């Protein structure tokens, strides 16, 4: 996500608050918030969900909520990139 100029820190804080709320969400296996080192208004979120149903349930629960609205007001542009985990250190990837 790219925040409006000068609003990256504010967006990151809202996303970190969301991350804290996901601690109790069993379907969320990973949710990392990162700031791009050379572009402080660019925030990367890396997520890993147990399955699509778990993600869909959380998205439905937050849709239209005040926290979601506040975050989206800060976003100038966003792009989702889906990946298929193949391996490495961290949660065990599912068969591809």
Question: Any overview of this molecule?
Answer:
This protein has 96 residues and is of the alpha+beta class. The protein has one domain (2-77): Alpha-Beta Plaits, CATH 3.30.70. Helices cover 35% and strands 26% of the residues. The protein is built from 3 helices and 4 strands, in the order E-H-E-E-H-H-E. Strands 1-4 form a two-stranded antiparallel sheet. Strands 2-3 form a two-stranded antiparallel ribbon. A hairpin with a 2-residue loop joins strand 2 and strand 3. Helix 1 (8-21) runs antiparallel to helix 3 (66-74). The longest helix has 14 residues, at 8-21. The protein is globular, with a radius of gyration of 14 Å.
Query: Nearest-angstrom radius of gyration?
Result: 14 Å
Which class in CATH terms?
Answer: Alpha Beta
Strand proportion: 25-35%
- The total of helices stands at 3
| Mass-distribution shape | globular
Task: State mean pLDDT (0 to 100 scale).
Answer: 92
Counted up, domains total 1
Structural class: alpha+beta
Number of strands: 4
Low-confidence stretches: none
* Helix proportion range: 25-40%
CATH topology heading: Alpha-Beta Plaits
Domain ABM: 3-57
Protein name: ABM domain-containing protein
């Amino acid at each position: 996500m790219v925040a409006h100029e000068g609003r990256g820190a504010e967006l990151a804080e809202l996303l970190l608050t969301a991350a804290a709320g996901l601690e109790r969400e069993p379907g969320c296996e990973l949710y990392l918030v990162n700031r791009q080192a050379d572009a402080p208004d660019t925030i990367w979120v890396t997520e890993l969900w147990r399955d699509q149903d778990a993600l869909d349930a959380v998205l439905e629960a937050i849709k239209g909520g005040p926290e979601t609205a506040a975050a989206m007001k800060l976003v100038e542009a966003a792009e989702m990139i889906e990946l298929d985990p193949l391996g490495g250190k961290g949660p065990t990837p599912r068969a591809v």
